[in-house]
Amino acid sequence: MFQSQQSNRIVQVIIIVFVCLLFWVFLNALITPVTKQPSTLVGRELYLPKQLQIDMKEITQSNKKVALYFFASWCSTCVSEYKTLLDDKSDTLWVGVLYYDHLNDAKKAFPDLDKRFALIFEDLDGEFALDWGVKGTPEILLFKDSKLLERSYRLEHS
């Protein structure tokens, strides 16, 4: 009988420790901002699809940061933060990647696309996004000197 009480007590302690650990993980997930996440792709060299026939030296040799902005006309978050993107005063060179979207649809949803983006192209099959680990829209990959610096999932509102 004593062994039964002792084993019950051990099970109770294990359950309490497990619940506390689960609660800590949940709280930590709530506190961590999701706009910027570490990425194993940091440091990866910038490239664009070969079918665009773009000289990457023109893009990467400027002293500007390059932002790959994955977005779509069907993405409500993309539409709502578009004004923030237009108001961006940094000297970042923006490259728009239409994620599972057509340029004609994007032009209807986002006026003045040409004012913000140095280049826009369609990723209709999602292969380019998949290669960069993009899971949804909007997503921003920021490059400096052709190397990925960081990725974020929302524009920083200043």
Written description of the protein model:
- This protein is α/β, with parallel strands linked by helices.
- It folds into 2 domains: 1-32; 36-152, 3-Layer(aba) Sandwich (Glutaredoxin), CATH 3.40.30.
- The protein is 39% helix and 22% strand.
- The protein is built from 7 helices and 6 strands; from the N terminus they run αβαβααβααβαββ.
- Strands 1-6-5-2-3-4 form a 6-stranded mixed sheet.
- The radius of gyration is 22 Å and the shape is elongated.
In short:
With 158 residues, the chain is α/β, with parallel strands linked by helices. The chain has helices at residues 2-31, 56-60, 76-80, 82-86, 103-109, 113-116, 127-131; strands spanning 36-37, 66-71, 93-99, 117-123, 139-144, 147-152. Strand 5 (139-144) and strand 6 form a beta hairpin.
- Domain module tally: 2
Largest sheet: spatial strand order: 1-6-5-2-3-4
CATH topology descriptor of the largest domain: Glutaredoxin
Report the mean per-residue pLDDT as an integer.
Answer: 80
Q: How far from one another are the termini? A: 66 Å
Instruction: Assign the CATH architecture of the largest domain.
Output: 3-Layer(aba) Sandwich
**Shape label:** elongated
CATH class of the largest domain: Alpha Beta
Q: Strand tally, please?
A: 6
- Output the structural class: alpha/beta
